[in-house]
Amino acid sequence: MEELTISNRMSGLNPSAIREILKVTTNSNVISFAAGNPAEETFPVSELKELAVELFQKHGFMALQYGLTEGYAPLIEQIRLRLREKYAIGRSMDKVMILSGGQQGLDLSAKCLLNEGDTVLCEAYSFIGALNTFRSYGARPVGIPMDEEGMDPDALELALRREKNVRLIYTIPTFQNPMGVTMSFARRKRIYELAVRYNVMILEDSPYFELRYSGSYVPAIKTLDETGHVIYVGSFSKVISPGLRVGFLCTRSDLVSKLVVAKQGADVQTPLLTQMLVSSYLERYDLDAHIEDCRALYKEKRDRMISRMEACFPDPATFTRPAGGLFLWCEIPENISGTAFCKAAGERGVVCVPGGTFHPSGDLKSPCFRLNYSMPSLKQIDQGIDILADCLSAILP
Amino acid sequence: MEELTISNRMSGLNPSAIREILKVTTNSNVISFAAGNPAEETFPVSELKELAVELFQKHGFMALQYGLTEGYAPLIEQIRLRLREKYAIGRSMDKVMILSGGQQGLDLSAKCLLNEGDTVLCEAYSFIGALNTFRSYGARPVGIPMDEEGMDPDALELALRREKNVRLIYTIPTFQNPMGVTMSFARRKRIYELAVRYNVMILEDSPYFELRYSGSYVPAIKTLDETGHVIYVGSFSKVISPGLRVGFLCTRSDLVSKLVVAKQGADVQTPLLTQMLVSSYLERYDLDAHIEDCRALYKEKRDRMISRMEACFPDPATFTRPAGGLFLWCEIPENISGTAFCKAAGERGVVCVPGGTFHPSGDLKSPCFRLNYSMPSLKQIDQGIDILADCLSAILP
User: Fold this and answer.
1) Interface pTM, i.e. ipTM
2) Whole-number mean pLDDT of chain B?
3) Model confidence over B58-95: pLDDT tens digits?
4) b/e string for A360-396 if b means 16 or more Cβ within 10 A?
5) How far is A60 from chain B (nearest CA, A)?
6) Claim to verify: residue B75 and residue B206 sit in the same structural domain
7) Last residue of a domain, one of B264, B284, B304
8) Nearest C-alpha of chain B: how many angstroms from A299?
9) What is the CATH number of the domain that holds B334?
């Protein structure tokens, strides 16, 4: 065969390290802290089964036919109301559209807003799926340092002045992936003001924000948006099911029109069956009560992981104490590469993701790694953290 | 609000005229020949309901969790075997991956193969969803004339020599959308040989090929592919359900690896629920018997539309007699624009799509239009064709 010539935008991109790691961790002896999966025990399987039966009985033909690209109208309205009434997200200038998972919101936004060579400012470290999507449109992600309040606004402003063709600020303000940090409300205000002043759009990615286990609620950046500078992306993946692939976004309606054109070319529409299942679930059941159950489960797991780490991790390792979400972040001394550490841990049967995977500039030596606590059992958390502590002690001076 | 700046690749793209037309035709008094929808009465609603119940009972947690980007392994294997054994598609160099509908195969292929400014050679006229996808990556579709055997290979070769940076030949060889033409096997061979000689990939889009109502089976271009020059895209949209959004492609495995990376960024994966439903359907039921039923239904509709057109369309209008698929194509005298004609017909309550919509160069005046016969009832076909004949008589000299 002739050698294959891949487009410039895609030729440098490789499979997500995480999804590749996940292929390995189907081995049941392995303790995986690598995934970003919600726990299966939270999935409302029997509720969805009943709803599916009813749906096929009452609206089977509609569920199997083509539908509108922007999404199933009743679901759009349910989401619009929920966002507006519960979270003060969305104004009259805004519209909601349905996505095939939150990831599609990042993809369509990048496609509609970024030219080749444009810069996207994002948290360092950030979600690999977003970074790769920006790269796949020829854009360049540039990392802004974070502290315990989130993205540093002074560094952000410097970058807004210094970097060329900045078109987008990408942020996961609440329970950030991978670092578990939540941006303070004061920071959200400053970052929104900077976006307005420099006329740059903010892509606010918010898949985890309803999974809070402690601390108090911080309103979304989108709640501040009077000027049409924020695209808010949400998802049912972490609170109902990721396998259904139903997400949504809310932003100014002229941008939604363009995103709908992009979605026509991407996948025509999200399956009506999965949209209608989510819509029936929202109508019939109390999502907030279900989220309370998820929170209780994940809080126990988070607390268990943190207390075990506090008890047995050697001193030079530091880690975040996230108030919610699925991840925490561990930093180790500068001279130890996260990749080397994760390799050593993997050989002892514990899988975690090297921090460098999430670095906007792709620095694989970063001395840090990400741990997920939603998937493993309490027992696995105990065993896995003990092994990681052993590995750290062995590797540390 | 500040004016929105859309990326160069998307700024010129507007909503698909067809999907916009479809929004209008939800009015039940309108007779629509505009859609590309399969007939609802072909959807196996009760079978899928039973399968969904079983699926939630036995594999509910798996169906709702994340899965591999390349697709649900048993479904990949079912498709691989069906393509190989029934249609001689796929060699050892090839792999199958699952798509969120066939459209996603066009999108991912364009993303991985086309640079901005590249040329895609395609049939004139061609599928608007494909043309817009190529445009959305900054590529330029160039139309190759067709005759009753499909794309003209001499014109294709001229274009391969003349046009700059030709990276892709896009074709719907069987029951082409919009023209209803099927490419002869001799043509398929010549076009494949040209692709090899000029080292250009062929994107073979084949959503309709199992819906044959007359004439004899013509093997796919992919059956000839010994050199890894063909991407074969298929779908269950026209033979099971479009709303499920389950498609697939088959091509050389190194390209599949890259397409999987692109899919990670696009939507992570196709919903496991819909993939597993299709997989169970293929396992439990006889898809070929179901396709026979679809064929019988559509054959009757096609025959009805053609005989009615033969009986009452005025002479200067000519039209194709497709051997399968969902569409036929009508040409009217040069001095009448298809857009003006469709507007006049729309005012009489019959909707069809102006030919110009499908022109690679976007010439909206083209004297032609597309008719769909899978959606309307026999009665609607009779009434609608009579009205179109009236409109034609009124507009013709």
Assistant:
1) 0.96
2) 95
3) 999 999 999 999 999 999 999 999 999 999 999 999 99
4) beeeeebbbbbbbbbbbeeebbbbbbeebbbbbeebe
5) 6
6) yes
7) B284
8) 20
9) 3.90.1150.10
